[in-house]
Predict the structure.
Amino acid sequence: MELPSLSARSPLLDISTLKPEFIKPQWATCPGYLDTVLSIFQRHNHPFILVSTLAMRWSGGNNSPQKEIDVLVRSSHLQALVDDIVGSGEWKVSRNYVDIKDWLLYDSMVNETPIRDVWLKACFLDPAFEYLRFWPEELYHLTVDCNKVEVPDVSIRNYVVLEEEYYRDPCQRFGPPLLRRYEECNIPLLPPIQQRAKIMRRDIPIFIPTIEDHINALLDQTREQRKSERRNGGDPEGQIRNYIRYLYLDWIPTRNWLLSTKIRERNLELMTQKLDKYQRKPIVQLDPITKKAYHIMPWERPIRPEFLHLAEQIIDSGPSYASCYPKFPNPDRSKAIVNFGKSTQDI
């Protein structure tokens, strides 16, 4: 099932204005560096679905992009897709890049399972991403027929959450950046034209899995890795932690909602363990009266008028928030945790 495309509703994600005449000869990666790959996927009637780090940046996870684009592929289509992409002359079969460039990362990114994945290396100059990594469904524990959201490009300048139901605080004191907040501030999200994945093939959609399907796939991967004691070359546990961190899944109301509505029964115990184990760092703030620093959790912030928090949605949680806060009197720090776990209706 595909969810409604948000790219069609936001001017920040509009790709219809890209015109071939804007392409300059010195841009080595134009037309779009994935135009050929997308055409091949379309020819094989196979959707192009991002997973892992790049997908999470569209889902509220502030992950740092690496050198690869992770793509979910049906095992039955894997070899045919690889043959045609290599045959285009733009990509060649490669080993995992850390196998050669960084032995410190090798152990964590090598696929030790019997299920084959494929790495392709760009043959053109100055690629936005050097590698494509194709994940078979069985290795990623996610099917190509999963619930999906369409996105306008592979990469994004900053992270954003497109599924607004994961912004759980009704008082808007904390949460992942929403698309409408970027719109209100007119902050660009898509990369410059010379760094776009698709220009000539804007008719071919790019998808990400829904957050619900992605988290459950990562939990399935974690259980499988623990059972088999074999890594799949990804970082499912680290990505689950990032989802918890940036979607504030450890806030009790969100936690209860997530476990009751989004996590599959087979993963409930493991996700509960992950949430119990996660320890969020409190935010350091300066009391405007005493000039003393104190710690506070995001959900302990006072409820304020909307205009005071609009800009904050663009900034990652951390000390940088402090300068945006109004000068409220400092409550008794000995009672700083009194509201932890309560819904906003209880506060």
Strands lie at 48-50, 68-73, 91-94, 118-122, 131-136, 148-151, 206-209, 283-286, 293-296.
